[in-house]
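Dock NAP; give full complex structure.
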Amino acid sequence: MRTNCSASRAPRRPRHREVLVARTSTKRTTALVGEAPHGVQNKAGVRTTRLPSGDVIPVLGQGTWHLAEDPGRREEEVEALRLGLDLGMTLIDTAEMYADGAAEDLVGEAIAGRRDEVFLVSKVLPHNTTRRGTIAACEGSLRRLKADHLDLYLLHWRGEIALEETLAGFAALVHAGKIRQWGVSNFDTSDMKELVRLPGGSAVQTDQVLYNLVRRGIEFDLLPWCREHRIPIMAYSPVEQGRVLDRAELQDIAIRHSATPAQVALAWLLRQEGVVAIPKAGTPEHVRENRAALDVVLGEKDLAELDRALPPPRRKVPLQML
Ligand code: NAP
């Protein structure tokens, strides 16, 4: 059947595993889920994890929701994203939904001339996810991003259209070299189980979900399920869009570590295997602060205090989304 995609297979793209710098050994080890082999960091010193495909991605990336909504802030936002790349936060997460495509356009400006440094992620809106719609939506994203391929393309959340249709669109896009791999977002455990049973469904690379100190529901079943299946999760809204930052517990721990509450919230996520955090920062100051969260190491006392104040789930909590 004809598609909007070129029928010919595109040349192999450089794989992101090539940017690894092994501090302690040059030998590669067998990948476990979300395993961050000791000392393996990208060129700028950001710890990495592996997708099921073997691609290596930084555990700290950059979100883009609400970027490009204020023309007066554009220059600073572009600068912030570029600084994030300089600092090794080379995974950029965007979506056709954000600012109605304008966020992708801004990302395109930020990564101009630096595409090879970036692990570029975008998302398709559920109502576009027929086979043909998925292909057309991806082509729109690529136009706005001024890129010829995405590293990872996600179904933004599950809608009415059958998953088989979307998987057929993803497969055509992979075949045409327009996306290297695909994943999902806002899928609960039952959705993931259903997905991996579908033909081709086990090629899913990640589930991007709401996860932070005040949204711990996934710890009951989704996070263990993803670990068991060696699928890293991508934690969105890692500082709960700023709402978690004035909690007293965080502030106390931040003082003990000469850190900020945002750094404590990020460090809490980043200490875990198989978890990638994608904070959105619209200013260079916030980008620097977030990058430095990788240097904050929480101890047993900190974690116990956080567990007391913000306990992990004791039973199934349906996946929440923003
Ligand atoms: P977030 O990253 O938790 O919070 C962003 C907010 O926190 C912004 O207001 C930002 O302010 C502020 N902030 C960032 N760093 C800070 C710091 N160090 N100190 C104080 N404030 C700081 O929320 P989010 O944007 O919702 O989530 C992150 C990304 O995840 C999104 O941008 C998007 O890419 C993705 N996401 C995906 C979904 C999905 O359904 N798949 C849903 C939501 C989000 P400034 O802008 O002023 O720096």
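Observed: The first helix runs from residue 74 to 86.
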